[in-house]
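Hi P.,

Sorry for the delay on this. The queue was packed all week, but I finally got your sequence through. Input first:
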Amino acid sequence: MVTPVYVPFEKEPGHHYEYRPRYGKVYIYDRPSHWSRAKGQMVLDKATLLGAEVPGDPTKIELLGHRRKAALAAMNQESQTENDGQNSTICHAKIERNRAMAVLDNMFRASGVDGQTASALHCIDKDGMLNLAAKGQTLMRYMFLFETATAGRLDIFQREHSCPYPDVITESEVGQLYELVGNEPTCKMIFFQERYRNQKGELIIAFDSTTYSTYSSNLSIANKSYDAVNAKTHGIKLFQLYAIDTNEPIAWFLLPGSMTDCKALSYAVDELRAIGIDKLELVADSGFMSEENIALLESKSIGFVVRNPNHRSVVRKAFDAHLPELNYGSCLKQNPQVAGTKVALGNDRFLYLYKNLVQNHVEASNFNRQLYALTDSVSAEGWKRANTDEDLLPLIDKFLVVNEIAAPSKADAAHTSRREVSLNSEAVIEYCNKLSTFALISSKDTSPDEIYRIYFMREHIEDSYACLKGSIDDRFRVQSDPRLEGRTFFMFGTLCARQYSQSCINIIKNELRRFIAVHKDENGYKGQAKAYQHLLSWLDNSSLGKIFDWLDGAQDLSVQTNATKYYWSEPILKRDQLLLAFLGVDDFPEGYKELPNWEWLKH
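Then the structure:
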């Protein structure tokens, strides 16, 4: 008889339940999701089987398969150890349970988000009697570690961590906090101004939008929109201003989901002026390109780099004149596969033309293969234009030459009509030359290398949207406009802290790579280089969420079973200590502090 193994279980929103009639059990799967930039929507990841539902007891699940075998083996080993009287400790974890909160406190402090939040909420709670600053800082930390849909876990979170606000914040108080902030627009503006003051020098701001969906019909800003999952949702556009050189969000604002990007640019300019940002350049994709927007930016003396679509006449003429220069000119230092050139348009405008030479060959080969297959299809006996897919007719008319050759005479039965099909070489060459090309229009008179760098740095804003929808919250769950503004305020503050934390992790990884490359073969550093390589491998293969999950889940305990020996082995403990030291909440092991520039994360 199979011995069942039960373990504690807590329901999560991402869990999927599936009934298996053959076994008479309900199987529980963990099915996480992430934001796909390519598909523009949330995509389900591979499901992981957790176990089977225990009838009548929702707090437990029954382990199955290899999970059950591993648990039984661990229990047998533990039982054997107790029977032999060998209750020896394999290893001891010396790190406290709240080490995740210690790191969070350091990140919120070092990034300035704690101070900016306190300054913004001071306009509502001037005497501090409501403790709004501490409540807001606690709520942001909760959003950092947990997806905010599970609002009921805030109580557990506060009991397990030493939060800025020590008492319990109920869901009702969270809603009231949202409403207080949403009814006071000054809060948002002060927060934005503080974010802007934290920057140094002239800002290069990426401006882009994403659409959030909500089921609420009480939000005046929400418009009916199509959702691939549920057509009943309403859409809200969130626009973000993002400093691309420092990878830090600066500001955000909400607009109806039906508003186009072109029309929203004027709102962004007004928002910038309200914040007090006067020295900046704006970077945007082709969705914001229009003559009206360019004229607006020029009238406000705002520098810009904007993607100019290839179908515009000025771009087509420029490519016709400069394609030979792109084909045989020098490539960019930023990307040796890309050639670029600058064309002066007059009125202090410049057009920057680019061509990816490697990608061009790939796309041209694929296009030619498509044409050869189409040629064979048209040449086949029995082909009729009337039966051809309408999408293929423009290709046939533009790139193929079709000649129908009739029989010499109807009486000559030995000769029949035939069809000759060949490629229109000139049209094919002209089309293939323009593949993998794009153009940027700018007010800056500089090198194609610099404009290329500026424009593609804006892609980091897409990562911030993926973080907003994948790690913080994928849908607005509020029933009034003030609460929507308030909720977005705290989501944005959490995003600022997460982006700063990710930048810290990236700096650590770069420093580790530099150290390993320099010292890996030196006798006095081999052990240290090995430990750093262990930490680097873990960071490379773990998302920010997984890193903080690990820091949050570990406790101060003594391990007495072989099943958990690996997770608390000396290399793992040293790896964690090194990471915490780099993040400013622990001490470096003796002899390990050979990396510079950590003053910004001291205790």
